[in-house]
Design goal:
Elements: E1 8-12, E2 16-19, E3 24-26, E4 44-51, E5 56-62, E6 73-79, H1 92-105, E7 108-113, H2 124-137, H3 147-152, E8 153-163, H4 165-180, E9 187-193, H5 204-209, E10 236-242, H6 248-260, E11 266-272, H7 279-282, H8 287-307
Parallel strand pairs: 6-7, 6-8, 8-9, 9-10, 10-11
Antiparallel strand pairs: 1-2, 2-3, 4-5, 5-7
Helix pairs in contact: 2-4
Length: 309
């Protein structure tokens, strides 16, 4: 065995280490929980492979009312955070969060399991997520490959949401759909929870994970700088930020940039005092976490009510 195999050649604290032999050790988000029927909400979940060649998959969530509903339910496409390099839909925090969201909003949820950097450098996560969005669109006429989506998801009422780096990806999915077309999918709302966007500086972690990253002129990472922001093809956006979050100002900057861009939609921002980054995932039992989820749910329900005759 190479005596140098355990030599660390690069480390990003709390995220991952890269060893000289090429191994990558993740330091966060490695816990997993299987799909199934949630005992608290009765939401059913299962993992579905989209692309066997790459391993791209979704974790789908079906609320208990789906079987008896006379109409199809809205679809929420959720994109997890983790700095583009850690976590997955099977992480217990995400799994429990989306069980609750599916039950409270009465929506079908598709949680995207994109490939992680640095093994799969950016923009792989963006391309995987777009492939997942397009895959869901194939179910609009009820003849796609996944019965849960064929039978229960209304592709005319679709939300995209994400937290942290996942919020960045979610925004980019909305922008890419605007540019390339969503097909029969109708995006009605975008929810960005504690979003990661670049600021005026080049981001060291992103530079490592994204070989083509050039700095603030890269509008995938630095969305507030995007000259096409006014064309965002989504009528309503909700941004959550927290007072103690190191990304607080970046979320607020995005909110201000979208408002000032000439975009014709409605954007709201909600700030939680005294809270840190994605606090609702770390402790969903606290009152402010419940308040955040309540506003997330209310946002989607209000849009759905406005669309229903």
């Amino acid at each position: 065995m190479d005596p140098n195999s355990n030599e660390v050649v690069r480390e990003f604290p709390h995220l991952f280490r890269v060893y000289k032999d090429g191994r990558i050790e993740r330091l966060l988000g490695t816990e997993t929980t299987p799909p199934g029927t949630d005992p608290l909400t009765s939401v059913q979940s299962k993992d579905v492979t989209i692309n066997p060649q790459t391993g791209l998959s979704l974790r789908l969530y079906l609320p208990p009312t789906a079987a008896s509903s006379s109409t199809k339910l809205p679809l929420l496409i959720y994109i997890h955070g983790g700095a583009f390099c850690v976590c997955s839909p099977s992480n217990p925090a995400y799994h429990h969060h989306l069980n609750f969201i599916a039950a409270e909003t009465n929506v079908v949820v598709a949680s995207v399991d994109y490939r992680l950097a640095p093994e799969h450098p950016l923009p792989t996560a963006f391309d995987d997520s777009w492939e997942a969005v397009k895959w869901t669109t194939s179910h609009a006429a009820g003849n796609g490959p996944e019965p849960w989506l064929n039978n229960h998801a209304d592709l005319g009422v679709v939300f995209i949401a994400g937290d942290s780096a996942g919020a960045n990806i979610a925004h980019n999915m909305a922008m890419r759909g605007t540019a390339e077309g969503f097909g029969d999918l109708k995006l009605q709302g975008l929810v960005l929870l504690h979003p990661y966007f670049g600021n005026e500086n080049k981001d060291e972690l992103v530079a490592y994970l994204y070989p083509g990253y050039t700095g603030p002129d890269n509008t995938i990472i630095h969305a507030p700088q995007d000259p096409n922001l006014s064309g965002l093809g989504c009528p309503k956006v909700l941004v959550f930020i927290s007072e103690k979050d190191f990304l607080r100002e970046r979320g607020r900057n995005f909110y201000e940039a979208l408002k000032k861009s000439g975009w014709k939609g409605v954007v709201d921002i909600v700030e939680f005092e005294g809270e840190d980054h994605v606090f609702h995932l770390f402790d969903p039992t606290k009152e402010k976490a419940k308040a955040l989820v309540k506003q997330f749910v209310s946002f989607m329900k209000q849009i759905e009510n406005d669309l229903r005759p």
